[in-house]
UniProtKB/TrEMBL annotation:
Keywords assigned by UniProt, alphabetized: Hydrolase, Metal-binding, Phosphoprotein
Family the entry assigns: Belongs to the metallo-dependent hydrolases superfamily. Hydantoinase/dihydropyrimidinase family.
Taxonomic placement: Bacteria, Pseudomonadati, Pseudomonadota, Alphaproteobacteria, Hyphomicrobiales
Chain positions found as N6-carboxylysine: K151
Gene Ontology CC: cytosol
Origin superkingdom: Bacteria
Cofactor(s) for this UniProt protein: Zn(2+)
Keyword Membrane annotated: no
Role according to the record: Catalyzes the stereospecific hydrolysis of the cyclic amide bond of D-hydantoin derivatives.
Annotated SUPFAM superfamilies: Composite domain of metallo-dependent hydrolases, Metallo-dependent hydrolases
Keyword Metal-binding set for record: yes
UniProt name for this protein: D-hydantoinase
Protein modification: Carbamylation allows a single lysine to coordinate two divalent metal cations.
Length: 485
């Protein structure tokens, strides 16, 4: 006889493949039964008229990163993960940064200590901004410890890698079994355009989009895909902002390459016009890549529907607006190039996608689950522990009222940022109860979880990121061997 800690009763369960009526029995933090008429649990949750969904997996969010100059990351692991859980997310993957010229091991150890305050489970990508021989020598042990993804940037002075450095990181990732994730924009082109705009006195927030047009993203996507193909290494491209970049990914996928694409709600909801809001308000919407056009938004939905873009994550970047350590670090007359990039979004990612996606008929419920939970769990090596509702999976569950209409207000979001780009946006569908490993973390907007409840998820190795075994020449430059055909 199964002894349930919790039974979620009378709900409609949805996974990436199915939607069905079932009770969910939870014991020891795991899903142990799916069926009807389950025995009583010590805690009973009535989910009549509710959707019972896997908790979201947000595989791209910036939480409690070290300050860069005077710019402070406003969220701690406690506030960031509370915010995530309030929006139905139960796993976050954030970034351990490397400061150029410094190592990665101590930075990662420090980041682990900060993350111990998380309310929900977490894992990390390691940012490599300087692949020195020492750093490359340190990486294999850190990957082996479960940090199975690396982030590289093709732009920003403080972190940019050139093509040779990129190839070195890609080669190491293939050898050691890690996934490389990429911020893809052409650095030299952005610098050139920024200088030209500044010389012409065109430095308002709206000119950010002029300094980072679609073509600079398209070119960098094309280039990094070619480099990944050259070495037979799977990669994920982060925050695809519009049709031309997504098209590069589609073309690569059609050639059978393991190139994965992610977009974010801001690229489905904002346009470059938002950067032109008066009184420096445009700075709130300034992120990289830049928001594009309405046509790009609809194209991105198409690429989601066809599976080209398999993940939608938040790129939560907690820069406060009315703050000298945030968007106003250089005042309200600052040139766009001095305004910290990014928008907050941990709490709003799922409600926005549910309402704009499922509610407006752009995607079905299974696709919503796939792009927000199952696919990131698979790509980052935590499935089926995370990302689904199945026997043996962690009981990470969000119980949604699909009919509840909410007007988004910043005070609902539990982050430490003083704004949301979705202020006043009405959404239909809201996560009422979030459970992490069977424990209620959020109930009707109240945070019930405690800092320290979250656990580190050591990852992999796993199949999704194995190389294809396809080589461009009869010599494999990663292993240094001739290919036997
Ligand atoms: N762009 C980034 O590259 N990082 C954080 C936020 C953003 O907009
Ligand atoms: Zn980025
Ligand atoms: Zn980011």
């Amino acid at each position: 006889m199964i002894d349930f800690d919790v039974v979620i009763r009378n709900g409609t369960v949805a996974t990436a493949s199915d939607v069905f009526a079932a009770d969910v029995g939870i014991a020891g933090g795991k899903v142990v039964a799916l069926g009807t008429g389950l025995a009583l649990g010590r805690k009973e949750i009535d989910a009549t008229g509710r959707l019972v969904l896997p908790g979201g997996v947000d595989s791209h969010c910036h939480i409690e990163e070290p300050a860069v100059g005077q710019v402070h990351n406003a969220d701690t692991f406690a506030s960031g993960t509370a915010s995530a859980a309030a929006g139905g997310t139960t796993t976050v993957i954030s970034f351990s940064q490397q400061v150029k010229g410094e190592g990665i091991t101590q930075q990662l150890a420090d980041y682990h200590i900060k993350a111990e305050q998380a309310l929900i489970d977490y894992s990390f990508h390691i940012v490599i901004s300087d692949p020195s021989p020492e750093v490359m020598a340190a990486l294999p042990a850190l990957i082996e410890q479960g940090h199975r993804s690396i982030k590289i940037f093709l732009t920003y002075d403080s972190v940019v890698l050139d093509d040779e450095q990129t190839l070195n990181v890609l080669a190491l990732a293939r050898q050691e079994g890690a996934l490389v994730t990429v911020h893809a924009e052409n650095h030299s082109a952005i610098k050139f355009l920024t200088n030209a705009l500044e010389k012409a006195g065109l430095t308002l927030p709206k000119h950010h989009a002029w300094a980072k047009p679609m073509v600079v993203e398209r070119e960098a996507c094309h280039r990094v895909i070619a480099l990944a193909e050259l070495l037979d290494v799977p990669i994920q491209i982060f925050h695809v902002s519009g049709a031309e970049a997504a098209e590069e990914i589609r073309r690569a996928q059609n050639r059978g390459l393991k190139i994965f694409g992610e977009t974010c709600p801001q690229y489905l909801m904002l346009t470059a016009e938002d950067l032109n809001r008066p009184n420096f308000e445009g700075a709130k919407f300034l992120c990289s890549p830049a928001p594009r056009t309405r046509a790009d938004q609809e194209a991105l939905w198409d690429y989601i529907r066809t599976g080209v873009l398999g993940i939608v994550s938040s790129d939560h970047a907690p820069n406060r607006f009315d703050d000298v350590h945030g968007k106003k670090v250089r005042g309200t007359d600052a040139p766009f190039s001095a305004i910290p990039n990014g928008v907050p979004g941990l709490a709003t990612r799922l409600p926005i996608l549910f309402s704009e996606g499922v509610g407006k008929g752009r995607i079905d419920l299974q696709t919503f689950v796939a792009i927000t939970s199952t696919n990131p769990a698979k790509l980052f090596g935590i499935h089926p522990q995370k990302g689904t509702i199945a026997i043996g999976a962690d009981a990470d569950i969000a119980i949604w009222d699909p009919n509840k209409t909410v007007t988004i207000r910043n005070e609902l979001l539990h982050h430490q940022v003083d704004y949301t780009v979705y202020e006043g946006v009405e959404v239909t569908g809201w996560p009422e109860i979030t459970l992490s490993r069977g424990k209620v973390v959020v109930e009707n907007g109240e945070i019930r979880g405690k800092p320290g409840d979250g656990r580190f998820l050591a990852r992999g190795p796993y199949d999704a990121i194995k190389p294809l075994g396809r080589h461009v020449t009869p010599f494999d430059p990663v292993s240094g061997t001739l290919i036997d055909n």
